[in-house]
Here is the input.
Amino acid sequence: MSDPGARDHQMFPVLTGDQLQTAKRFASGPARVFAAGEQVYAIGEQGVAAWLVLEGTIDVVRRDGLSHEAPITTHGPGQLTGEVNQLAGRPTIAGGTAGPAGCTALPFDPAHLRALMVGSADVGEIVMRALILRRVGLIEQGSGGTVIVGLPDSPDVVRLQGFLTRSGYPNIVLDAASDDEGRALVERTGVASSDLPLVVCPNGTVLKRPSDIEVAACLGITPELDPDTIYDVAIVGAGPAGLAAAVYAASEGLSVIVLDERAIGGQAGASARIENYLGFPTGISGQALAGRAFNQALKFGAEIAIPLTVEHLDCDEDRPAGDPLALELPGDRRVQSRTVIVASGARYRRPDIPDLAEFEGAGVSYWASPIEARLCEGEEVALVGGGNSAGQAVVFLAPRVKHLHLIARRPLAATMSKYLIDRIAALPNVTIRVGTEIVGLEGERATGLTAAIFRQRSDGVETRCAMRHLFLFIGADPNAGWLKGCVDTDEKGFIVTGAAALPLQTSRAGVFAIGDVRAGSTKRVAAAVGEGAAVVAQIHTVLADMAERHAE
Here is the structure.
């Protein structure tokens, strides 16, 4: 078992004398003196510096959207304030005030904080671990963050909670029907049931049935983009491939922006546990893996804009040679970059089941996160799929549900790793139905799924099974429609690469494709990460050619 005291020491470390002297070299300004009780930084303030305490103390507090305030810690000499939001200059979810004796502290703005991380391996490791653990602590407590008020099993509440959780933001859900505070807030705001759920941001702003984009704007997750900035690399997609490319490109000094329409992690981010990823013998959840990569990318200075949809790539054939590529965004906005990496992965494949769309988010799910597991606790469920993602979901869900029907078109040995097949075989509450398909769903959108109809393909015999939750893991189709013919694809829509002797370059110069969206790629997390690393060397080649032509 881990030692809570050791974790607290890592969360709030005290730098030694030598480490303190090293850190001072990276400060963004001179030391500042704060009087007793003076505010050092406010909750929700953007671009806040991390402060290294030299004398005195800084009291740090958290506050949620309902104005519940609680102390987090008191930083003394040799300790640094902040959490991962300070790396990117995003609004802070904690506030700091000088202690009873005041304090003297050195500021580290986001750029200088990142410089400390990279410039000193010793101090950088200590500080990075502390910032991450502080965010983890806030998430585990569900405090200092966003409050969602609604019915916990409603599609919109599940969607919003999923977005915030995968984005690494602390959140709590208050039941609008049974929680006293939840009911009181609904009554006080006078909202109709059709306006639920409410989202209350840490600054007190109340949103009615918001989109993910509206919540991101309220929290300051999505940065303001300068239309005149020209990046070295623009990466579309924040799954394993895109995040790997961001880490390697940014660590090698390239200016990088990553855009994704939903959240970090891609499809892998929804995986409950990945057990065959190199270096993690006990396994790791997709969300944890994506979160680590996200923090690495921030550490090296990559800019990450989520959720932000890329509508299309400007494919103007008359674009002057040497002009940057342009990604068109909603609202007539654009991002300019010398090169573009397409890492947009794949979209969940939808089987041909009547009225399927009616139940998406109301009993039908394409991933199995802890949120979905909580909703189907102790119930009968079905899962369709025969690949590793399906197997991982079965292993994750089975201990939590009454019974699980695994529906596959062919024997699992043809598509699933043996360790997963063996583990599933040992689960007493799992029934494997090979050669079966789902041909019908029962229920209503308002009340959710109530039953599914199974059909045996060999003889056509149909069976009705009462259930409220159906999970679909039947593969995915390439998410490349936004390119609208700008690059060559194969007959299935996957992007073809290998132009100009560069294995990952598409038919359009300066545009690369990696991960699941690329034709011929191996659909594994490790393979996607490898392509994310490999593409950076090829981008250096293209950028060097551009610089050489510009110099002529």
